[in-house]
Amino acid sequence: MSILLLGGTAEARELAVLLEQAGADFESSLAGRVVQPRLPVGRVRIGGFGGVAGLEAHLAAAGVTAVVDATHPFAEGMSANALAACAAAGIALLRLERVGWSGAPYAETWHWVTGHDEAAVVASRLGARPFLTIGRQSLGAFTGPLEHAAVVARVVDRPEVKVPPMWQILLSRGPYELASERAILREHASDVLVTKDSGGDWTWPKMEAAAELGIPVVVVRRKAPTTGVEVVSDPADAAAWALGFRDTR
Fold it and tell me: Quick one: how many helices (H) and strands (E) in the chain?
């Protein structure tokens, strides 16, 4: 048995621990988009595969019998490549994805949008001091509509795009607590919070803080789930699924 774990999330790291405890042969793959990523236990490779063809070649070379896609809910490109490569190679694929916030408290009060471009436009109408927590790779969609806004953008690593002079970049990594999120929104007098439906607990406190302070929230929706792929939200369920391939080689 050889399991490929497409990771980079807290759920992926938890799954790696479970697989190691079970004595499974597995390798975690990280995209390498974060300068100093949190590394899971076990073997780790960092960097892309080179598209579908490259991933398919890796599956064959590594003798992979099962793949768990535990990438971020917004890593659509990697998930699409995993689906195509596994289908071509005849390898089982499971999606491990944390539950989103669509059913969470306050969700009915948020401004839900379909993409970052729309989020930027909506945010520009709602406030003059936006707090952006959408990741550095998406900042380019906001630099135009929010060029003259007093933006505070919180990211893990420095953005590659040039940001307007009025913007302030905060380098930070969760998890976060309610008190600190409340304090940062007050400190910067933020009047609109922009985020995406990442789900989970690590970054949820900012949503609570915004609700307490009466700050409007703009949320980028997730894309529709990929059809034909089993999806679980509990790392223990993903481990049980992967370990079921122990005797297939």
Answer: 7, 12
Give the largest Cα separation in the chain, rounded.
60
Q: Where are the beta strands (DSSP E) in the chain?
A: 3-6, 26-30, 43-46, 66-69, 92-96, 111-113, 130-132, 152-155, 168-171, 192-196, 217-220, 230-232
* Rounded CA separation 202/167 (Å): 25
At a CB cut-off of 8 Å and minimum separation 6, what does 60 contact?
89
Task: Classify residue 125 by burial, with Cβ atoms within 10 Å: 0-12, 13-18, 19+.
Answer: exposed
Rounded Cα–Cα distance for residues 15 and 70 (Å)? 9
pTM: 0.90
Query: Cα separation of 178 and 212, whole Å?
Result: 10
CA distance 193 to 203: 13
User: With contact defined as beta carbons under 8 Å apart, do 99 and 206 qualify?
Assistant: no
Determine contact, residues 43/26, Cβ cutoff 8 Å: yes
The structural domains of the chain, with segments of one domain joined by +, span 3-99+224-243, 107-220
Can you tell me the distance from the alpha carbon of 241 to that of 232, in angstroms, rounded to the nearest whole number? 10
Q: Which contacts of 7-10 are long-range, i.e. CB under 8 A and separated by 24 or more positions?
A: 7/40, 7/70, 7/71, 8/34, 8/37, 8/70, 8/71, 8/72, 8/75, 9/70, 9/71, 9/72, 9/98, 10/98, 10/200, 10/202
From CA 154, how far away is CA 44, in angstroms rounded? Answer: 27
pLDDT in tens, 145-188: 999 999 999 999 999 999 999 999 999 988 899 999 999 999 99
User: Was domain 3-99+224-243 assigned CATH 3.40.390.10?
Assistant: no
CATH class for the region spanning 107-220: alpha beta
